[in-house]
Amino acid sequence: MKLFTSIRSQRVTSLGERRLIGRIRGWLGNVCPPAPFGIGDDCAVLPRPGRSLLVTTDPVIAGRHFDAAVPARAVGAKLLKRNLSDIAAMGGTPRTAVVSLALAPATSIGWLRSFYAGLAQCARRHQVKVVGGDITQAPDGFFGAFLTLLGEATAARVITRQGARAGDQLYVTGALGGSRLGHHFTFEPRLREGEWLARRPEIRAMIDLSDGLAKDVRELVPPPLAADLQPDEIPIAADARRWARRTGGSPLEHALRDGEDYELLMVVDGRRPADGLLKNWRQHFPRLPLTRIGRIVRGGSAKFRLGANLLADGGFEHLRPDSARDRSR
Ligand SMILES: [Mg+2]
To answer: What is the pLDDT of residues 89-140, one digit of tens each?
Structure first.
């Protein structure tokens, strides 16, 4: 059997990311425990005495996640930040990373030095130690850096994607959309916020928004539940409006679909009044809005209540034949 095929129906793109992950889970069988201990959450959770260990991994690939216009320092920082965001989504603290490189022979030493300067500066800020990795030669023109990040739970519990119930509320940090105008490199992983939220009993489930609200919200709201989103309440970034003027799309569409927001989307227990949560939030994070954007309803097979047409094809999907770039989980 060959590695690559010209037959469309036999290509990974015919499955898309979600179904491919399902296949991989099947191929692994009982080697892959159910989420969050195996595939399926922002990090894998490794239970241990005391605080659970968290593991996540994400790459940056030249031509896919960045191009020649992006400074090497920003690429190095982003490699770590997209992993940090996954630790934040579970309310964890990052600790240790390993970085593997796949380098074409012509890779510039100067570029790589700047890449590591950006990575080291970000690691210092977040007190992450880089303790190893691997280097392998890649075919001409290829650059890939793959980072695996270990962290640990900061609270007694880890917040997973599971736990939403009908009647619960959906909240999001910050503002969404237009990430391509710079936010996808300049974003701040919401680590402090994630740690704080993990200690709040109101929070039932959480995810970081990497692929776009329209797609990522599905991970928190499995059928037969549905998300009843309020379009007027969704916080739209100024860059989403700017970007919409260029694309001719609507700012709301960009807020739903662009991805790479790296904000936190959470499910808040509908039986507890949220006033205390919001008041405390404003005291701790006065500059970052926390906004209610909808609620969770029993939806049967119904689509999201917010314009089914807007949400029908969701956010960014990896491994689509036409997908222009990649996002992290
Ligand atoms: Mg994630």
So the answer is: 999 999 999 999 999 999 999 999 999 999 999 999 999 999 999 999 999 9
One-letter amino acid of 134 = D
Q: Which residues contact 85 (CB under 8 A, 6 or more apart)?
A: 187, 189, 190, 208, 210, 262, 328
How far apart (Å, rounded) are the C-alpha atoms in residues 56 and 150? Answer: 7
Distance between Cα 6 and ligand 1 center (Å): 32
Residue 279, φ and ψ in degrees, nearest 5? -65, -45
Q: Which tokens sit at 151? A: 């962290």
d(C-alpha 329, C-alpha 43), whole Å: 9
Ligand 1 centroid from CA 76, angstroms: 18
Q: How far is the CA of 309 from the centre of ligand 1 (A)?
A: 25
264: CA distance to ligand 1 center in Å?
A: 9
Instruction: Report, as an integer, the average pLDDT of 236-240.
Output: 97
User: What pTM does this model have?
Assistant: 0.92
For residue 194, which of 291, 279, 264, 123 has the smallest C-alpha distance?
264
The rounded Å distance from CA 43 to ligand 1 centre is: 8
Ligand 1 center to 288 CA (angstroms): 20
| Cα distance between residue 173 and residue 253, in whole Å | 18
pLDDT band at 223 (very low <50, low <70, confident <90, very high): confident
